[in-house]
Amino acid sequence: xxxEELQSLIKSHLPCEHITLEGDGxxxxxxxxxxxxxxxxxxxxxxxxxxxxxxxMHTDEVHALSMKTYTPTEWAALPR
Length: 80
Hints:
This is BolA family transcriptional regulator. The protein is of the alpha+beta class. It has one domain (about 5-75): GMP Synthetase, Chain A, domain 3. The chain has four helices and three strands, in the order H-E-E-H-H-E-H. It has a three-stranded mixed beta sheet with strand order 1-2-3. It starts with a helix and ends with a helix.
């Protein structure tokens, strides 16, 4: 799976204001910003992202996904 394919899959099931992906085709690191994360704890945010992947995680197309998840307000407050 390519970064573009993974990004498209996540975006098709989760409205994202920002998403970046890095990885080697099986092991991925993502930064995801979505208003859907408002009021959710980190584990709930991660579960929401995993839900967008469906069987891709179970069939090992995506072996590992490490992520940082932010609301738009949290993202805007980060120093750059």
